[in-house]
Amino acid sequence: MLPTRTHQSRTRRRALLAGVVTVATAALGIGLSTQFASAQQTTLRGAADALNKDIGVAVNYNLLQSSAQYRELVATEFNSLTAENAMKWDATEPSDGNYTFTQADAIVDFAEDNGQTVHGHTFVWHQQTPSWVQNLSASALQTAMVDHINTLANRYEGRVDSWDVVNEVVSDSNGAMRDSFWLQKLGEGYITTAFQTARAADPNADLYINDYSIEGQNAKSNKIYSIAQGLVNQGLLDGVGFQSHLILGQVPSDMEANLQRFVNLGLKVRITELDIRLQTPADANELAQQASDYARVANICKNLADCSGITVWGVRDGDSWVPGVFPGYGAPLLFNDDYSKKPAYTSVLNAWGGTVTNPTTTPGTTTPGTTTPPPTGSGCTATLSVQSPWNTGATYAGTVKANQNLSGWTVSWTWPGSERISNAWSIQGTLTGATVTGSNAAYNGTLASGQSTTFGFNITKPDGATASVPTVTCTPA
């Protein structure tokens, strides 16, 4: 059994963190979001909080810095953050002893400002480790590893709740150890040394071993199980991270039983990097299957008391790593590129006991004949289309195209009936009346000639009639 250690509950830590505003956050222009405070079970965050589980997301520092819409969605929908790259070795110590924490600090500050926990990723990995580390002698390599873990763990002690201590240490075939520079120079004992160092540096952080293709019982997960047993016997391991970079329709049939055997060791389990890729372009049937797959994973975690949560590896499909590594595949996440919710979003929310208030959107699906013809001859043109109608409302997508270089734009239209905007994104202004006048947000106003940007909104339509699509006028700012 693991030795007893003191941990604050996730709920209490978020409550303690919520009021802190830091200089690094202000420097990014990232203000405190208050929406999470009122979030109930109509968001992923509300549903996860009700279950006392994490719903996390891998955060891209550059998007967090540049996009207000990205920041707002991250703050509203998720209660846990993982730095996508900002805590890896190449980002924090690019040269020997020269540490830089600008990006990592900003993500931790943002989490604290918004009452979110942080899952640290990662201390020891064979990739994204600078060449100066890989070229060290065995003794110098171990010294560098210990120093690196101590520096990061000490800096974020009490602020990062859990860490992926070692990442992807088992090969993809036959359950052998990965033949990395770590193994070649230090032998398998580097894993134990890493966990011993992390445990001493931050005794209250949960320590995880993290890997992919271990969701089902196979040679690779059996090896992770064996490593986990040894670490548990030494009181060094708190949990196992299952990356779960899955393929459409291939959630392992024995995933729940496999996770349960790790729980039986006294460990937490965590879905750490979830995405479910499919062949693009996606059709409605594929998106429905993806939603079913996401729901299955969500239910597995929900039904395991010791599943600490799920982290989705990115926000929007277009920001995912998948297309760059698996050509022809993509669309693996919960949100479309315009931040609208996919069917997979709804399936996860429903699986965790929530209720969707805004309909999900399938790209390319519109009511026939509901796209406005753009006016011609102006510095910009704009169109609206109905993406997802329901009895008393609809979701609309808007597109602005620049016919010249723009530093900003304004669109306007008048509703012919009872349509009224209830909430909107990527647009601001006078939006709620019969006549709408909206302008660009801070991040989508500058366009080169020929470029386009998008905005969107939901409407209510109390009379239940078919949602109309008015003609839109676009004017350069």
TrEMBL record:
List where this protein forms a coiled coil: none
| Record keywords | Carbohydrate metabolism, Glycosidase, Hydrolase, Polysaccharide degradation, Signal, Xylan degradation
Keyword Signal, does the record have it? yes
> Which parts of this chain are annotated as the region Disordered?
357-378
Write out the catalysed reaction: Endohydrolysis of (1->4)-beta-D-xylosidic linkages in xylans
Write the Enzyme Commission number(s) for this entry: 3.2.1.8
Report what the protein is called.
Beta-xylanase
* UniProt GO MF annotations: endo-1,4-beta-xylanase activity; polysaccharide binding
> Per its UniProt entry, what is the enzyme's top EC class, as one word?
hydrolase
Name any Gene Ontology BP term.
Answer: xylan catabolic process
The GH10 domain covers 41-351
Identify its protein family.
Belongs to the glycosyl hydrolase 10 (cellulase F) family.
> Which residues of this protein are catalytic?
273
Q: Where is the CBM2 domain?
A: 373-477
Q: Where is the composition biased (Low complexity)?
A: 357-370
Question: InterPro entries in the record, alphabetically?
Answer: CBD2, CBM2/CBM3_carb-bd_dom_sf, CBM2_carb-bd_dom_sf, GH, GH10, GH10_AS, GH10_dom, TAT_signal
Source organism's superkingdom?
Answer: Bacteria
